[in-house]
Amino acid sequence: MPNTSGLLPWLLQQGQQQQQPVEDTIVPRQSSGMSDRVTVGGRTGRFNFDLPPESDDRTPGLRHAYIADDGELYYYQIEKANYGGRWDDSANFDEDLENLRGMSEKVRRVRLGDMWPNENKLISALIGALAKNMSNDQIKKQLKPFNTYRQISNVEYDPLKGNPLDEPVK
Q1: Is residue 60 packed enough to be buried (19+ CB in 10 Å), middle (13-18) or exposed (0-12)?
Q2: CA separation for the pair 57, 59 (Å, rounded)
Q3: pLDDT digit string (tens) for 120-144?
Q4: Separation of alpha carbons 144 and 141, rounded Å
Q5: Which residues does 82 contact at the CB level (< 8 Å), separation at least 6?
Q6: Cα radius of gyration (the chain)
Q7: 3 falls in which pLDDT band (50, 70, 90)?
Q8: Can you list the positions of beta strands (E) in 15-170?
Q9: Dihedral over Cα of 150, 152, 153, 157: its sign
Q10: Which of 8, 22, 80, 88 is deepest in the core (most CB within 10 A)?
């Protein structure tokens, strides 16, 4: 019978060397080209890895160019850990609505514009619902057709509570 006592440690070592950490992303990270079609933030489209990613101190990951099927360009993170889901399904939805109720319409527009740039229909629907003094449950139902998805941020910035570094909105 051959001596295989040294074989098992060698096999284990080889297996460990071949294992690479798997990155948990919504699409595979690429050095160039277009991703497969994927729905991100309520929109269907493709990531364009030929365009340089954006980075700042507000988000934990790089934001990659994403071209929605309607031709609009957005920048999204691809790490699954950086996705926060729909705002109207979040644990802080009721608190956020109460903060909005305490603001003037002008301040609401600015703060909601910080949350959802270029989403004028969503912002108008939300401001209209608040002006009609709709209940939180009614507002939640009214928001379902809209894209309220948000991504995780690096900073303690909440547009509905304001930021001490922001200029005051009057």
Answers
A1: middle
A2: 6
A3: 899 999 999 999 999 999 999 999 9
A4: 6
A5: 59, 60, 61, 151, 152
A6: 22
A7: low
A8: 38-40, 43-47, 64-68, 73-76, 83-86, 149-151
A9: positive
A10: 88
Q: Taking Cα atoms as reference points, which of 166, 95, 116 lies closest to residue 126? A: 116
Bridge partner residues of 40 (DSSP): 43
Q: What are phi and psi of 57, to 5 degrees?
A: -85, 5
Question: Ramachandran region of residue 143, left (φ > 0), alpha (ψ -120 to 50) or beta?
Answer: alpha
- Give me the phi and psi of 144, to 5 degrees please: -55, -40
Residue 60 CA, chain-centre distance (Å), reads 11
Sketch the domain layout of the chain as residue ranges.
38-78, 84-151
Pair of tokens at residue 63:
């934001």
